[in-house]
Structure formats: structure tokens, C-alpha cells
Amino acid sequence: MTEVDDVRSAPPAARPFGGLYAGNARSVMARGWRATRSTNWLVVVSGFFEPIFYLLSMGLGLGALIGTVTTASGQEVPYAAFIAPALLAVAAMNGAIYDSTWNVFFKMQFARLYEGMLSTSLGPLDVALGEISLALLRGGLYATGFMVVMQVLGLNLSWWALLALPAVLLIAFGFASVGMAVTSYLKTFQQMDWVNFVMLPMFLFSATFYPLSVYPQPIQYLIQALPLWHGVELVRGLTTGQVDAGLLWHVFYYLAMILVGLVFTTRRLRALFLD
Amino acid sequence: MWGTVPEPVIVAENLVKRYKEFAAVDGVSFEVAAGESFGLLGPNGAGKSTTMRMVGAVSTRTAGTLSILGMDPDRHGPEIRSRLGVVPQADNLDTELRVRENLLVYGRYFGLPRAQVARRADELLEFAQLTDKAKSKVDALSGGMKRRLTIARALINDPSILLLDEPTTGLDPQARHILWDRLFRLKEQGTTLLLTTHYMDEAEQLCDRLVVVDKGVIMAEGAPAELIRRYSSREVLEVRFGSDLNAEVAGRIAGMGDRIEVLPDRILIYSENGEAELVRIIDAGLRPITSLVRRSSLEDVFLRLTGRTLIE
User: Can you tell me the distance from the alpha carbon of A151 to that of A209, in angstroms, rounded to the nearest whole number?
Assistant: First the structure.
């Protein structure tokens, strides 16, 4: 009985962050991969083609009327080469947001999937990292496909474009992390609509289809505070080959998003399922 | 090992769980020995599920001490959970996966090797009588099959303790009996079972020992037969006179049997000999619409202890 006695003398909650992480996020990823294979593959395929359709219609179609655009750093580039990196960043954002909001919301509220996971030796951080990594994997696949299309159309203007791939993963990680954190606080489908309400304008106005310089100064500041603009500028800098130290700020912005999102997600999952 | 008392695998002392002002569990103490089948019997809202969640190391206690397999769940949650099997009240099977996949994926959550999980999954499908459903979708299973799959899933890590929260609620009688048979086999194999139920017959079938819980506190503890002996008579006579008359008739038969309970739809007369009581009622000139003599059950124990029926 000595061991039991020893345990009894310990105050409750002596390790408040104990058991958050079992180092087994890959089992959560493996589960998602199986589920995608058997039921969700259509969603995956549609997500792949969406940005390509945008690129073809706006980049090639509208681009024929527009000609060239001047980027933030003053370079003249064809319109398609201007919006392609933005669409790439948007695709990363959309994929990550879909996976981390609608998917997660469903699993949490209806399928009670996480309840099952957290009654095993998995911790909330395993679940969060596993789900987010899967979203990243998907984002990475989309991005690679899109980059190939860009290359074929001659829209990658520099070898720096290769770095756009990890950049896209970083963007997806940031959005997935924050998306999952936000979702874990939402309770109804109506609240889920708020997510769309934020996403759509951000997509349209974050210097996606035209340079930021068309806005008056105060609006520019607002756009620059939002995450998508950083993603667009980062990827655009790389695919057009206009690389300078300023790009690092965009990277830092996403690193901060990732960190904040993970902290809140883990905390919230713990409160919901392990109080 | 002869002659040694098995070390308890669950020790709860004055366990309390409070949500703001409301105490869902209010000072519960019990011990469960290895290999024992232990029940928490009580109505909905008695605090059974909350107790289960604390034992399952997914809910922290507000006060009291709790030791599961010699460990404190506040400090060793993951280690404890890795040695438990959990069957929650509502099925939370993974509907995006097929039947066998549910077992494979769940086993991997415990970090078990792939080959071991695969072998175990096939054994458990056999045990749960689901081998021919291995490739089916979960949604295509009947309620009883889902429950059996949930139990199979809970056994994938070869747990030291199996926690079952209302294992047969919502199942039809046939499915319940199949499930009881499976659980009884586990019991015979020496698996420690902790189960909650609001069905007295389930408690009588499966539990070596149980506590009767109401409003977050323990009302009584013992083996089912022992509790019945202690808190009830051997037999019960149930008579119905019609909803309007029950209360009126109750006054006239007061004093019959050891004790009388007047429920909205019937009167229960507790006695060593139910038939004899029925004869006395008829001799008194009363004509019940229906009458039934049965043996006392845990339901009667609960009624005696709380003044209420288990299923309301």
C-alpha cells in the first residue's frame, strides 16, 4: 500500500500541464488519412481545382485586358504572375481553414471524436497537432499541384519560387492553428458563419487582385494587420524573386499565429474534455 | 497468492465534484478489488457518470482522494488512461471509418505496435460477434452491434479495468442479453468491471457488489442479494386499483405486510409471503384490477432508500 499512500499525500493538480502531450500526434494523422481515403476524397479533389480555376479565369482571362501590374517593390509583372502567388496563399488559407473549422467543429460537436481520443493515452496537444498536421499535408499537396501549374504557365519568375512551398505550409499552419482555436470556442452553426464572414472579405481585399497602393493609408494599415496580406506578400516576394529581409516579418507574423493558436487550442481542448 | 486479499485497483475516498454551486458528486467513497465487478446503481443525474469520468481520468476531482491502479489521476492521467477501457454512455465510434478500422485506429492512439493491434482487432471482432461486419460502415450497424463494437474498442489495449457507463441503455431486450453474455465472459476471464446502470436487473446480473447512489451520495453498499435482504422483504405484492382509487385504497390496507409503498399507478406491499397478503386484501372486500407477486429486487431497495423509483 505504500505507493497508494504516497499518491494520496500529493495535492491534487500538482502537475497542471501534465498529460498534455503523449508524443503520438501521428496516430491522429493516420486516422485522418484513413477517413479521407474512405469518405472525404471528393472535398479534397475540389479544393485542388478551385485555385486553378481562379488562376485560369482571372489570371489569363482578365490578365489579357490588364497587361502588367506594378508590385509593392516597384517591379512590373504580368497580371497572372501577380495574382498566382496570392491565389496560392489563399488556397493554403482556405484548405487550412476548412480542415480546422468545419471539420473540427463537426468532430467536436456531433461525432464526439475527440472525447474518444482523449479517453486514451492521447493528450489534447496530440489531437491538435495531429489534426493541424493533416491539414498541412493537404495544403502541401494543393500547393505543389498549383506550383506545377504556375511553372507550366511560366508564372514562377525566379528560383526563389521553390521556397514558396515551405512558405505556403507556414501560412497553412498559422491559419489551421488559429482556426482550430477559434472553432473550439464556438457552439452553433450560426457562429460558424462568422468565420466565413471574416474569410471572404479578407480574400478579396488583401492585395490579392491588385496592389495595396490603391487604398488610402488608413485602409492599408488595416489590411496589413490581417494575416492573409502577410501570406500574399511573402509568397509573391518569392515567386517573383523580389526577396529581401522584409519578408522575414511575414514569417514572424505566422510563427506568432501558430504559437497563439496552439496555446489556445490545447487549453480549450483540455477544459472541454479533461476538466 | 493464496490467502492474500487482492489490492484494490480503485480507491475513492470522499470524492467530490462540484460545478460552481452544484455538487454532482458529494463525498463518495468506495473500493474496487482486482477482478471484481462493481456497480454504481442510481437514477439519471445521481452523479454516476461524473464519478466514472473522474475514475477514467478525464475529469479532475474538486476534493477527496482517488487512486486508480495505485496512481493519482491528477498526476498520472495518461498512464492511467493507457490501462483503462472506456465504454461511454453514448457511442462515440468513428463513423468516418469502417468497423475493423475503428479498432485499428483506436489501438494506435495508445501507441501500440501495428501488428499487435491488427491481431487483437481480429480477436475482438470475434469476441464481439462482428467478424462478418469487419468491413461494414459503422452507421450500418444496429444499436446492439455498435455497443459491442464500442466494448471491443475499449478492450483493444488489454485494459486492467473496464469502465462501462450505462452499457445497455437504449437497447432492445435481445440485444441486452447478448451484451450481458459478453460482459459476463469478461468477468469470468477476470477483467475488473466498473459499471453504472439504472437498470436493477443489469446490476443483479453483472455486479458482485454495488453502491446505490442518489443525488451525489452513496445510500447503501453491498452485494445485490445482501442489499435486497437488508432493505426489503422476500416478496412483493403489486396491486393496481386504477389511478383514482390507489390512494383511497391505501388507507384501508395500511398495516398489511411489513411495509407499503403507494406509487401513482400501483401499491406495493412488502411481505415474506405475497400470496397471503393478496388473500387478506380480497378478504377485506377489495378487488384489485391486477395483482402480481414477485421477488424483491434492487428497485425495491432503491425505493426504500430514497422514496423514489429508479426510472421515472
Answer: 20
Residue intervals in chain B for CATH 3.40.50.300: 8-223
Q: For residue B15, what are the contacts with CB-CB under 8 A and spacing of at least 6?
A: B25, B27, B28, B29, B51, B54, B61, B63, B64, B65, B66
Provide the total of helices (H) and of strands (E) in chain A, helices listed first.
Answer: 13, 2
Q: Do residues B69 and B80 touch, judged by C-beta distance below 8 A?
A: yes
CA B55 – CA B9 distance, rounded (Å): 11
Contact call for B97 and A275, based on CB within 8 A: no
Q: Which residues pair with B268 in a beta bridge?
A: B238, B261
Picking from A12, A24, A111, the nearest residue to B111 by CB comes out as A24
Distance CA(B83)–CA(B69), nearest Å, equals: 9
Task: Provide the shortest C-alpha distance from residue B183 to chain A (in Å).
Answer: 20
Which residue in this structure is represented by grid cell 488583401? Answer: A206
Q: How far is CA A109 from CA A105, A115, A130, A273, B92, in A?
A: 6, 10, 18, 12, 11
Best CA proximity match to B241, nearest among B221, B224, B257, B263: B263
d(CA A150, CA A197): 29
Domain boundaries, chain A: 25-273
What is the CATH topology of the domain spanning B8-223? Rossmann fold (3.40.50)
- Residue-wise pLDDT tens for chain A (275 aa)? 333 333 333 344 434 445 778 889 999 999 998 988 876 677 778 878 888 999 999 998 999 999 999 888 888 999 999 999 999 999 889 888 888 888 888 888 777 899 899 999 998 889 888 988 988 888 888 888 899 999 999 999 999 999 999 999 999 999 999 999 999 898 888 888 888 888 999 999 999 999 999 999 999 999 999 999 999 999 999 999 999 999 999 999 999 999 999 999 888 888 887 77
B225: closest CA of chain A, how far (Å): 31
Question: Into which CATH architecture does domain B233-295 fall?
Answer: 2-Layer Sandwich (3.30)
Rounded to two decimals, the pTM is: 0.86
3-state secondary structure of A153: coil
Contact: A274, B60; criterion CB under 8 Å: yes
Taking any CB pair shorter than 8 Å as contact, residues of chain A touching chain B are 1, 3-4, 7-8, 10, 12-15, 18-19, 22, 24, 27-28, 30-31, 34-35, 38-40, 111-113, 115-123, 273-275
